[in-house]
Amino acid sequence: MFKKILVATDLSEISEQIINAIPSLRSIGTEEIVLVHCLNIRDVGGLANTLSPLIQPVLNKQQTQLTEQGFNTRTEIRIGIPAIEINRAAQEKDCSLIVVGSHGYNLTKDILLGGVTTAVLHTATRPVLVIKIEPDEAKGSKPSPWNPLHHILYPTDFSDNAEAAFLYLEEIVAAGAAKVTLLHIQDHIFGVHVKDRLEVFNRIDRERLIQLAERLQAKNNKTEIVIDVIYGSVAGEVIKLIKEQPVSMVVIGAQGRGHIGEMCLGSVSNKVVRYSPVPVILVPLVHS
């Protein structure tokens, strides 16, 4: 599933915390890591070849940290537009997951982990794991232990992209997930126009969630599966549930049906990434 991953690093304190969190991914099958730093050609211009040898020792230090954790790790310094190069590297090296970082409750302002993270999310053809780093951790304190398999939240609008994300969720459950919450939210904007049929929609959507739960149980009958259909603001309700329950990771499609307002998981996923206090895997829908 996520045997070989790409970790994007800007070599800052923020990225050190990302490196420290990577060992937790062993629980979802990670064995190989491609550690990538990209020099933005717009910033460095003709200095790229001069800067690369200066950067390599710092990159090697992070490589050593990961190697000592038992990962087969290689490094790459790329020159170009970071988001393009990160996605290109993931494809060329056949990485099944791209790992980037974000800071606090907003995407961080650092060169790689801010605008580049956003650009990676918008253009990725591989799933992207966004790991949230709190400000005190960015200053060097030891991050709290993280178990990705403890409690996974899967919000779905039953779109094709949500199904693509569910295929990854099935593999995560097979890897030993302890608990999964399958969540569908009846959008309050859309619901205003169908109040008289809301109970019908709720019943239909609950049946859909039950079918998804059965698929997960077939992968691992020891996983606790919870299903929930609620009414409200889609992104707001997702964030509320994350904060109220001990969710360890969110798996969500990068785009949704796009009918009305927040029914589109494109807007929802962006908000979830920005405001979720836990890591989020965004799965793009790749058209053949």
From TrEMBL:
<feature type="domain" description="UspA">
    <location>
        <begin position="150"/>
        <end position="284"/>
    </location>
</feature>
<dbReference type="InterPro" id="IPR014729">
    <property type="entry name" value="Rossmann-like_a/b/a_fold"/>
</dbReference>
<protein>
    <submittedName>
        <fullName>Universal stress protein</fullName>
    </submittedName>
</protein>
<comment type="similarity">
    <text>Belongs to the universal stress protein A family.</text>
</comment>
<feature type="domain" description="UspA">
    <location>
        <begin position="1"/>
        <end position="132"/>
    </location>
</feature>
<dbReference type="Pfam" id="PF00582">
    <property type="entry name" value="Usp"/>
</dbReference>
<dbReference type="InterPro" id="IPR006015">
    <property type="entry name" value="Universal_stress_UspA"/>
</dbReference>
<dbReference type="InterPro" id="IPR006016">
    <property type="entry name" value="UspA"/>
</dbReference>
